Amino acid sequence: MNTMMSDVDNLVESVKHDVLQWRRRLHQNPELSFQETRTAQFVYDTLLTFGGLEVTRPTATSVMARLIGAHPGKTLALRADMDALPITEENTFAFVSDNPGVMHACGHDGHTSILLGAARILSGMRGELAGEVRFLFQHAEELFPGGAQQMVDAGVMEDVDLVIGAHLWADLEVGLIGVRSGELMAAPDTFNIKIIGKGGHAADPDHTVDSIAIGAQVVTNLQHVVSRQTDPFKPMVVSVTKFIGGTADNVIPGTVELTGTVRTFHEQLRASAPELMERIIKGVTEAHGASYEFHYQNGYSPVINDDGVAQRLAQSLRETFGEKVVREALPTMGGEDFSAFQKRAPGCFFFIGAGNESKGITAPHHHPRFTVDEDALAIGVKAFVTATRGILSGV
What does the alpha-carbon distance between residue 223 and residue 217 come to, in Å, rounded to a whole number? Predict the structure, then answer.
């Protein structure tokens, strides 16, 4: 086993520089969801240079590569996302975004580079692999309805037995890896509420139906959905994130608009959320003589890790990195469309530590100064390579 690990360490060391350069190139050239044209082409062209891979384009801006092992076995899919966010970067290092208003603020540049590194190493191991490794480079994770479902619809999960994916995680210190069975990431649903009152002069509020005052009560009362109407052992978040209304300091607007998100893990609770919310919205608006329009949209399904896959993955990672490195990941109310792959095959999504307080790498995901400790890239490559070997060999 020590000899095997030494071989993997040498292989990871041999791709380390290229993985770093790939990440910096991708970071400097970010593209938004469903617009990853150059990114996908770069990934496609890079994969072709490795040899031994069947490389295809399942959708316009995604890439899939298949590595058929020399021996029969299961099919394992490995996934990385590639899209960036509509954020203006505030970092000052040499490879900041060259695309104004667009930034890799969530680590997807690192995910893509890590999976490219793993693909290069594993493509050279075909003779010892049993089964198939399917590399999925996914577009549009950040924007509903998401790229994962599009890739599934295009057939990338046909005959796949297991699927794993990883996220560089700012809340986890570099050098650590988080794996968890069961609930990991929540369903990110969204809502829109329009409060319809009666506008008028701010000096004569008694002649109006004040949509702002009513909207403020709706915001406050929606918090009772979580605090008083749901099981405290079933986590839920209801957040109003936008309140639009008004044009002048002396005008009470006739309407205001509220938008926000609801996060849940449990399907029954998720299904009840619109009814619980609308009951409050209806009660508040009717009590004040206003009316409303309410629209609720389900987003991605929650990421629920398969117990068997999570245990096999954790075992393989512990044998590689040691017991102290592999921790139980904490669940998060953030969302991820990796769940679309998990609906087609048992899977596990895990976290690779990428924060480093000593280096000042502390900005959260989706922040203008977000970045990752690049030491996490080699850890990610090693994790995917050893996990693949371990899982396909039946560890």
Answer: 10
In the chain, domain spans: 2-186+302-392, 187-297
CATH architecture of 2-186+302-392: 3-Layer(aba) Sandwich (3.40)
Confirm if 373 and 93 have CB atoms less than 8 A apart: no
**Catalytic residue at 83?**
yes
8 A C-beta contact, residue 353 and residue 173: yes
Which of 83, 306, 336, 337 is the catalytic position?
83
- Verify whether residue 36 is a known catalytic residue: no
pLDDT band at 1 (very low <50, low <70, confident <90, very high): very low
The one catalytic residue among 36, 89, 141, 337: 141
How far apart, in whole angstroms, are the C-alpha atoms of residue 99 and residue 35? 12
Q: Which residues of 10-33 are buried (b: 16+ CB within 10 A; e: fewer)?
A: ebbeebbeebbebbbebbbbbbbb
pLDDT in tens, 109-140: 999 999 999 999 999 999 999 999 999 999 99
* Cis peptide leading into residue 145 (ω within 30°): yes
**The domain made up of 187-297 is a member of CATH 3.30.70.360:** yes
Percent of the chain with pLDDT over 70: 98
Supply the DSSP string of 104-129, one letter for each residue: --SSHHHHHHHHHHHHHHHHTTGGG-
Residue-wise pLDDT tens digits, 85-115: 999 999 999 999 999 999 999 999 999 999 9
Of 126, 108, 120, 94, which Cα lies nearest the Cα of 13?
120
pTM for the whole thing?
Answer: 0.95
